[in-house]
Specification:
Structural class: alpha/beta
Order of helices and strands: HEHHEHHEHEHHEEHH
Radius of gyration: 21 Å
Strand order of the largest sheet: 3-4-2-1-5-6
Number of strands: 6
Bound molecules: farnesyl diphosphate
Number of helices: 10
Length: 281
């Protein structure tokens, strides 16, 4: 149920295999989302220009994606360029990130094919430069028939603007069908998100130690487990993805309930009777 495509565990490095051996393959997350942070700091620590941090970060994207595909992770969603990055970073950095994205796609589609990876995008991608959009479409079409990991790049993405776009399209649909707004359900909202075709993330990883969500997948992460590492994104590799998954597998997900081993059933009935006695004095 959880794996997608063919497992290629033999292609993991020996260090990765050692961590993988500690995992429960039947309990792999279906969807891992990552806030890739720390490219600038990585470069700064080496007295390099920020651009070089982004370039190194693009290598991490490919290596982490390949490990994800080897272990059969169905969905990997990476925050590659936020709406805020687009509005608030110097033009030279934004232009560099756009060129880097184009060249990343040009040089990695072949490796995506070898790894059975399908690439998709979420965000207001229609606002990106036309030549970048052309390259994105080309990579998406080239990899569309792959059946392994779906790598989704969030580009010109913001969680709040995704909700605005979803509400606008939901309102348009409701008006067209003469449906009344007070019948809108969570399921309707889900259908109009950029991520309607995928499950919500089970695990959200953030690199470089910041304890922030930075406007990422706000609706979708309601019950997502969060893993923050001090490691900067350009130093993040497949083995660190596996370590984050190992940590995730040690968590108990309760979705607002009481979880396993709690006083549900007979125990809960006893507790209720006790509470009634106390309330009655
Ligand atoms: C944060 O680093 C990261 C980004 C601005 C976006 C992530 C971009 C990449 C990983 C490179 C390109 C990706 C692809 C898919 C080609 P930061 O600059 O905010 O780091 P800092 O907080 O240390 O300054």
């Amino acid at each position: 149920m959880y794996s997608s495509g063919t497992l290629r565990i033999h292609e993991l490095t020996s260090e990765e295999r050692a961590v993988y051996a500690t995992l429960k393959p039947e309990c792999l997350p279906q969807h891992v989302a990552i806030i890739m942070d720390g490219n600038g700091r990585w470069a700064g620590h080496r007295s390099l220009k920020r651009f070089l941090g982004h370039q190194q970060g693009a290598k991490s994207v490919q290596l982490v994606t390949e490990t994800a595909s080897r272990i059969g992770l169905p969905w990997l969603t990476l925050y590659a360029f936020s709406l805020e990055n687009n509005l608030r970073r110097p033009r030279a950095e934004v232009n560099f990130l756009m060129r880097l994205l184009k060249s990343y796609l040009e040089s990695n589609v072949e490796r995506m094919m070898d790894n059975n990876v399908r690439i998709k995008y979420i965000g207001r991608t229609h606002e990106l430069p036309p030549e970048v959009q052309d390259k994105m479409r080309w990579a998406e079409e080239a990899t569309a028939r792959n059946t392994g990991t779906t790598l989704t790049l969030a580009l010109n993405y913001g969680g709040r603007s995704e909700l605005v776009d979803a509400f606008r399209s939901l309102a348009a649909e409701a008006m067209l069908k003469h449906a009344s707004f007070d019948r809108i359900t969570e399921e309707d909202i889900h259908r109009h998100l950029y991520t309607a075709h995928m499950p919500d993330p089970d695990l959200l990883i953030r690199t470089s130690g910041e304890m922030r969500l930075s406007n990422y997948l706000l609706w979708q992460i309601a019950y997502t487990e969060i893993f923050v590492t001090e490691r900067l994104w350009p130093d993040f590799r497949g083995i660190h993805l596996l370590e984050a998954i190992a940590d995730f597998q040690r968590r108990e997900r309760r979705y607002g309930g009481l979880g396993e081993g709690s006083a549900e059933g007979a125990g809960a009935a006893d507790e209720e009777a006790e509470a009634v006695k106390i309330a009655a004095g």
